[in-house]
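ok so i was messing around last nite and threw this chain in just to see what happens. nothing serious, just curious
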Amino acid sequence: MSDQPTLDLAPQKSSDSPPTAANLVTALTRYNKAYRSGSPLISDREYDDITEQLRAIDPDNAFLSAVEPEEIAAGTAVRHATPMLSTEKAYTRDALERFVARIEAAAAGLGETELTFRMTPKLDGLAGNDIGGVLATRGNGRVGSDITNAFKKGLIAIGGRDQGLGEIVIQQSYFEKNFTGIFEHPRNMAVGIIKADTVNADSQKALNDKRVHFVPYSTLAKWEGSGADLIAKTAEITASLRKKVDYALDGMVAEVTNQVVKDHMGATSHHHRWQIAIKERGETAITTIENIVWQTGRTGNVTPVLEIKTIRLSGANINRVTAHNAGMVRDRKLGVGAEVEIIRSGEVIPKLESVVTPAPKVELVSTCPCCGTPLIWKGDFLNCPNGSACSAQVISSLRHFFRTLGTADGFGERNLTRLVEGGFGTLEQLYGLTKANLLALEFGAGQTKNLLEALVTSRKTQVEDARFLASFGIHDLGVGDSRKLLRQFKLEALDTVTAEQLAAVKGFGAVTSESITSGLAARWSTIKHMLDLKFTLERTPLEAEAVAIVSPISGKSILFTGKMLQGSRNDMKKQALSLGATISSSISKKLGYLVIGDKASAAKVNKAKAAGVTVLTEVEYRALIAS
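result:
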């Protein structure tokens, strides 16, 4: 343990009274959002345990019957023809037996005596539906986001396109060889690839190597047999299927294959009644915490990493586990000597499952492990308020800039550490580097040449202005919110925007607006300096200007379908938006134009004509907007 003095453990969280349903829903909503965004805070098992706790307290709670949302803000909205639901879970043999019994009872009532059950691996990735030329996320189960452009980035469709439901995953053996320690889990990396307009160098390598896949469920290895065999041979079947799949798994999925039974049983608003996820507890081991290492990140949050007595799980030696934040260390009484249960269930990075024996003494750092500044509490995090005077925050902030921008290679943590320690700790200084500066810091001649060329490339390579703005690491201002902001205000004028003006924009609350405008003011001199370096920016069209444009499609809603020959559908959607149109995901009488490309659905065309919608070919549409 560090020799930092013991910090007062207040504020403590009371455990005297049982949690309420409202508290559990709040916690589950937070944990689900973190997991879906690629930054899980607790293990899957812990999440499911809390869900069951809520079920015991309030079995009719609306949260339990709702599809867990997969909020990936990407392309235009897509309404699913058939809802993408969650899956009921079974952790025990009893639960699986009850599932099979329900199926058999329903089948008997229908006169179905020959039943076949199927088991397939449950992928731990980002769910999607690839149908009609559009790949969409699950979203809230009814409406998802169009992420078809992921195929342009390099996503590989296993077995070809248009095969329906599946998941975006990364080959696990490849991930373990190349990215363990960089990303916590393949799913986190996959989510980042889908969310990013410009992917970072690590993700681009995986895409270039063709190891990022959309795997339709229909292509997975499967076992089929009777309900009795399913129950009796679950472990054996699971072991066999796991060997056939080189992706991170989250258990198995069992279902009845008889269509008449499936149609009869139907679904709840949450899950199909004829299907269940068989969740494994995973391989666990009990070990002892030997030390806690504290690390300062970009925002000043000081996070703990548990160094444990080495154990072997799922074929790997494990000696480090994340504890997420200081609040977890405080509340779960983690410290030297604590016995903890670690779980590794098909996951690349192990997780803390439970605390067997709390530490006899819990110590939290009171000063920043990098700069020695006294720490303050911010929610569950201990935070260093020293900002740009803390080299760990400086290095992390610079790393965030280059990774978010995605156009300059060579500026990883090792090189940035050497540059910051050498006196080049700001973007202004880095973009003013000379050959002599780098050679004086003992960079080699070849490395010096590459770094200088990378800086030039980063200015000349076109990047979306929203990504450029998000790279400065302003709190509450990621790429998505930067895009929303730039639809209302010009980038060069953001220093004049007030919190009140921003709060008036849909999607920005009072607290967030104050945070963003304060962050812009603090970083404006750097942003202005970088703008003066003439970065090549793809500008977000202002909504006011877009509405003011007089064009034949201004104010109209448009749906594009089929394969376009003169450009991608995504490019055509962007152009239509800039001309004042809106993009629709379905056909109705309110639709202005249906623009059809090659191999467009005849049924869709007929439906549009029946609704009185104007149908245009690609050539006719381009002639219209040209006029």
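not much to say yet. The two ends are 72 Å apart (CA to CA).
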